[in-house]
Structure formats: structure tokens, C-alpha cells
Design brief:
Blueprint lengths: L2 E6 L3 E7 L5 E8 L6 H12 L8 E6 L2 E3 L2 E3 L3 H4 L4 E2 L1 H9 L3 E5 H12 L7 E6 L3 E7 L2 E3 L29 H5 L1 H7 L9 H9 L3 H25 L3 E5 L8 H9 L9 E4 L6 H13 L2
Parallel strand pairs: 1-4, 4-8, 9-12, 12-13
Antiparallel strand pairs: 1-2, 2-3, 5-6, 6-7, 9-10, 10-11
Helix pairs in contact: 1-3, 4-10, 7-8, 8-9
Bound molecules: zinc ion.
């Protein structure tokens, strides 16, 4: 059976055909519509699935935001603007006439990374650090979704009560400090206006403020990991995302984590998948639910 997997992110939409061995056969990408209205997203989705739907037997969607009862609810309006509530499964079912499931993208990526683990592990947490900070929790071999779809949104736990306001409305979330957007927002003087990629490049050249910003992100993530260990007793944390997988970042997190008491440390692993984790995880979940 072939799955049409769709990934809906704040900056791009991707769709791929995935076979039963989890190989990506065909893949397309489009920019997320700038207007971020329901109509614009619907038109983009129609364009994306048109060349692929006839060759698929089911659809699996991984999307940013909270997915509850097949609908997308934006947790951070900065990511998805006017899409406060979008009936994702309903729309895609209508477009493709195929059975369809939807799951949060970080939860889906967590499931893909869990299946890629080489060791036999029951409890794993996945963190993605890129524009935002997302997460997914595997407990006793099962993906935690939660009745409202909120489980694993670890980027919105508290890092600093005196920190900046997060796009979700809380003050001092991990995401507001450790994410690419958080790093860029804290940049001053000659780094003001630079994105995280540029700041990390400058850090490698020895720029003191850039080094401090990178360290602040990694330290915030290390503290989150200690909290995660305390709350889930996970055997490992897998870290992905463009910031998470950038040169030297994981080592820095590991150094800060080694400063925590031993009880709160855990094994850190780099994510195996870069761009396709959400697509593959959603396809794996669909394979289990839609036979
Ligand atoms: Zn937040």
C-alpha cells in the first residue's frame, strides 16, 4: 500500500509518496501561502496532492500546531496566522477521496526517529530545535498524543520567568529562548537583524556575542532535557532540527547536561532524518491505523 504523506509547516508544505517499505518515491514542495488564510491553504493543498493522489491508497498528514479530532489549531499564531482552526482531515479527504489521518509534525517525527533507533528502547523523547522548538514523547513504546493533541509540546515549558514573551502567549518559554527565532530576537549591536544561521557562523569565527547566544540556547535545552528526564525517565533524547543538528550544538548541550546531577542526565542522540521525519512518521502511523 502506498501512502501519500503531507507535511504542513510554517514556511513550506511538502508531499511525498511513501511505499510500504518506507521509501520515499516522489516528493514535492511548495511555500506555505503567505496570506495564511483557510482558502489559500486549501488551494495550495489541492495543487500539492494533485500529481500524487491517484497513486496512493491512504493519506497521512504531519502538521505544525495542535491536531485535535483531525483539525489543525495554531498554538503559535506567528507560525500559521489566520489558521486558528482548520478542518485538515475533512479538506484533504475531500481533495483525495482517500482515508486520512493527521498528527502534529513533531509527534510524527518522534515516531519516525523511534523506529530508527538501533537499541531496544521503550522510553524516548524527541526534540526538534529549528524556527521553533517541538517535541514528541514515546512512553513504553507508544507515542503520547493526549486527548487534546497537546502532549510533547515541550518547547512551551518554562525556561525563564523573566524571559521574552513566546508566540504562544506565555512568558519565557524554551522556544522563545532556544529556537532559531529566539536566538535571532536576542541578538544586539552588530548581530542585530541576523538570523540564527548567520549567528552560528559568526560563533564559529569566535564572535563573543554569537558564542554567548549559541550557549544560551544549548543551556536552555540542557535544562529542558533534565526536566524531561525527571518527568519521563526516558532512556534517550533524540535531537533534530536545523539548530539542533548544527555543527557543535549537540556537544554543547551535552556539556551543559553534564553539569546537572547524574539522575537527570540521559543519552543524547542526533536525529537520523532531516527533512522527511514528519512525512515518514505520519506514514508509519497511517500504516498502523489504516490497513
Ligand atoms: Zn510558548
Amino acid at each position: 500500500m502506498t501512502t501519500l504523506a503531507i507535511d504542513i509547516g510554517g514556511t513550506k508544505l511538502a508531499a511525498a509518496l511513501i511505499d510500504k517499505e518506507m521509501y520515499v518515491i516522489d516528493r514535492y514542495e511548495l511555500a506555505t501561502p503567505a496570506s495564511k488564510t483557510q482558502d489559500a491553504l486549501q488551494i495550495c493543498l489541492a495543487e500539492l496532492v494533485a500529481p500524487l493522489a491517484a497513486r496512493a491508497q491512504r493519506v497521512a498528514i504531519a502538521s505544525t500546531g495542535i491536531i485535535q479530532d483531525g483539525a489543525l489549531n495554531a498554538i503559535n499564531p506567528e507560525n500559521l496566522g489566520g489558521l486558528a482552526h482548520f478542518p485538515l482531515v475533512e479538506v484533504v479527504t475531500r481533495l483525495t477521496r482517500l482515508p486520512c489521518i493527521a498528527v502534529n509534525d513533531a509527534q510524527a517525527a518522534a515516531w519516525a526517529e523511534y523506529h530508527a533507533l538501533r537499541e531496544e528502547i521503550g522510553d524516548m523523547v524527541f526534540l526538534t530545535v529549528s524556527t521553533g522548538v517541538g517535541g514528541g514523547i514515546i512512553s513504553d513504546g507508544r507515542l503520547l498524543v493526549g486527548t487534546g493533541g497537546l502532549a510533547g509540546h515541550l518547547g512551551h515549558t518554562l525556561a525563564d520567568p523573566n524571559g521574552p514573551r513566546c508566540g504562544c502567549g506565555r512568558i519565557g518559554c524554551v522556544e522563545a529562548i532556544a529556537s532559531g527565532r529566539g536566538i535571532a530576537a536576542a541578538a544586539k549591536d552588530d548581530l542585530s537583524g541576523c538570523d540564527a544561521k548567520t549567528i552560528f557562523f559568526r560563533a564559529q569565527q569566535g564572535h563573543p556575542q554569537a558564542i554567548a547566544l549559541k550557549q544560551r540556547s544549548a543551556q536552555t535545552l540542557a535544562r529542558l532535557i533534565a526536566d524531561i528526564k525527571a518527568s519521563t525517565d526516558c532512556q534517550c533524547v533524540v535531537i533534530g532540527g536545523s539548530v539542533g543538528l548544527s555543527e557543535g550544538y549537540l556537544d554543547l548541550v551535552s556539556t551543559f547536561l553534564s553539569g546537572e546531577p547524574k539522575t537527570y542526565r540521559t543519552q543524547l542522540l542526533a536525529a537520523r532524518y532531516k527533512h522527511n521525519a514528519g512525512l515518514l512518521g505520519a506514514a508509519l502511523l497511517a500504516q498502523e491505523v489504516i490497513s
